[in-house]
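EI: anyone free to look at a 475-residue chain?
SC: sure, send it
EI:
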Amino acid sequence: MKPIDSERLHEECGVMAVVNHPEAPRLTTLGLAALQHRGQESAGLAVADGHVVHSHRAMGYVSDALTDEVVRGLKGHLAIGHVRYSTTGSSNLRNAQPIHVTYKRGSLAIAHNGNLVNAQTLRREMENEGSIFNTTNDSEVILHLVARSRQETIDRALAEALRQVEGAFSLLVINPDTVMVARDPRGFRPLCLGKLDGAWVAASETCALDMIGARYERQVDPGEMVVLHADGRMDSYRWADEQPASMCIFEYVYFSRPDSTIYGRSVDQVRRRMGEALGREAPADADVVIGVPDSSNTASLGYSRVTGIRWELGLIRNHYVGRTFIRPSQEVRDFSVRKKYNPVRHVLQGKRVVVVDDSIVRGTTMRKLVKIIRQAGATEVHLRISSPPITHSCYYGIDTPIRRELIASSHTVPEIAAYLQVDSLAYLSIEGLMSSVQATEGFCRACFTGEYPIAPSGVGKDVFESETAPQTPSS
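SC: here you go
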């Protein structure tokens, strides 16, 4: 059974590294906990001590997969970690990361955030030449390319491999005495660097640096390779020619935590501006503004400030529901939504309510949520979305439904409003969104426009599944 927020778009993963610190495994695990929102299916660590790489992966949350006992057993002063939500390759243990291999030059592990659009083509070529793949994960393609390289150093071999792949990747690669950090030439997914005393830290978001007390230094530039050595040295060079930036705009809409700095901008400030722009574009005659927690709280505050409509905490989110394997009875049709959100009745009863949310995917969950708000006594429900309509699938590391399942791909705004049973519905415009990030270009907006920076071809979450033998059971 899918998690109860299965209608949300999901980031593929989060990555974390700590280099040249005696507590690298523990600190990396703490950082992964701060990145848990980016992936909840599996978690893992790869740790090096200068001589060998050890790793551990397991299904579930960080606290389940990387227990104190597990982390204590992984000795080393270099570590990389990963939390996963699958976008290529199904959710099972063999697809968990970091992927750890031994090849002619020794031991190597990779943690990858993103999606490769030409992985299927590369994989078929290598399989035809005799290569054997152990996962259905596109990240494994990079490891095979590294193993085939004749470059003299591991970082140059990685750079050569990355020149052959296309798509989105912010990745970490560890060998016994080095961690390599790289970002694709368009910078689709975020990746930053920090310092903790004499140690280097790399992470998908700055909130992971904050968790361990590290100081933010800078983002890893698109097309940059950063080599972090076991003795604390750092080398950096550009491995790819410069290309137009295509940073994922949805990091600001939903994925990143509001306390993070992404692409050099505060997520909290961007989301507040999104709410303010939405308030200017689509005000409502209402008594109260509420957000759908947690990702929409900041935008709803911005909407309230501009419109002058009082902001209230009208929905309480249960953070501890996790997954459920109990099938609700027919009498509890809205079980999945009710167990996650509960209305504050005295805030909603007798009120004209503006509900601010960050996005609508299929619409089924929002329809149930509107029903719950009305049952709590709201006399009117006006829905405001702090992003444009999602009309196209993403191929760069987001688990987006196929296009025909996206409600905005085939329905007009009035038709969506009728389906959701709201009194009015409005989305933020593309212009309003770009003004909120204070940019006119440099961002990928394909999920809203269908204008893909890199043409997708033969990609999808299960693209390799039909080509493989039956999957091994998860553990």
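EI: The longest strand covers residues 106-116.
SC: 👍
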